[in-house]
Amino acid sequence: MVLRRWLNETPVFEAMRAQAGSLHGNGLPLRRVLSGHRRGVLLSMACTWMLTAAIVVVILMAPSLLQHQHAIPAAQAQLSSLLATALLCASAVAVGAATDRWGLRPVALAVIPLLVLAGYALFGLASPAAPGTLFVLCGLAGLGAGLVSLVPVAMVRLFPPPVRFTGLSFSYNVAYAAFGGITPPLVSWLGTLDRLAPAHYVAATSLIGLAAVLAAGPAPRTAKVPCAHAVP
Q1: Which helix (H) or strand (E) holds 130?
Q2: Which of 27, 121, 157, 194 has a 20 to 30 Å separation from 222 between CA atoms?
Q3: Containing domain of residue 163, as a range?
Q4: How far is CA 72 from CA 8, 67, 68, 77, 202, in A?
Q5: What is the rounded (10 degree) CA torsion for 176, 206, 204, 46?
Q6: Which residues are within 8 A (CB) of 133 and not within 5 positions of it... i.e. 6 or more apart?
Q7: Is residue 107 part of a domain?
Q8: From CA 85, how far away is CA 94, in angstroms rounded?
Q9: CATH number of the domain bearing residue 102
Q10: CB 230 within 8 A of CB 161
């Protein structure tokens, strides 16, 4: 409600809106994205894969994994998960603010390794005999999961304004549908082979996501005028 009612559109899209009445489209937006911005699509999907692993494994699956693989009592696992979720909410805001101040790459190099280390600590050290330690480990994992705020920033940079909405929405939704569906059964099966498998999965996707975020490049110049053929 705040976004729609009180925030103004960005200057680049206001300029595109002003031009739209007198300009003709240049083909279907999705066709343009797939033909001319495949790199952006692939990197955006890699970022989304990292986001999916952080949310699905660290937040949603953790209570079940802790109960079945580490014999953590259900109530203890659920309370730890609630703490992780609360700290995720706080961390997402903090990561966004830090990105505004210090830039995408420095923050990514700090918060993504935090999630990797927290994931190994959580799934490697969790024990029903130390509930206090479990809360700390879940809290650190929740803070690391705040990397989700990096993903939309990186994805916005990967597509020029004329195809940004289509490129971002297509990449994100296709990737989340695919990886969100694959991740739970895959991680559950891998967990039967190695109880650190969830941490390995989070680490692998985080490193892939880190590479994609770093490849997104610097922030675009806000004063740049969009292409003359742009149609929002």
Answers
A1: none
A2: 27
A3: 27-215
A4: 48, 5, 8, 6, 21
A5: 40
A6: 125, 126, 127
A7: yes
A8: 14
A9: 1.20.1250.20
A10: yes
Residue 134 in domain = yes
Q: For residue 61, what are its two tokens?
A: 């699956």
Sequence-separated (6 or more) residues with CB below 8 Å from residue 128: 70, 71, 72, 73, 76
- CA–CA distance, 16 with 231 (Å, rounded to integer): 6
d(CA 213, CA 193): 31
| 225 lies in some domain | no
CA dihedral 175, 187, 61, 86 (to 10 degrees): -60
In a domain, 18, yes or no: no
Distance, in Å, from the CA atom of 229 to the CA atom of 158, rounded to the nearest integer, reads 19
The tens place of each residue's pLDDT in the chain, 232 residues long, gives: 887 888 887 787 777 777 664 444 555 688 888 888 999 999 999 999 999 999 999 999 999 999 998 899 999 999 999 999 999 999 999 999 999 999 999 999 999 999 999 999 999 998 888 888 999 999 999 999 999 999 999 999 999 888 888 999 999 999 999 999 999 999 999 988 998 999 999 999 999 999 999 998 776 554 443 443 333 3
**The total number of structural domains that make up the chain:** 1
The type of residue at 207 is: L
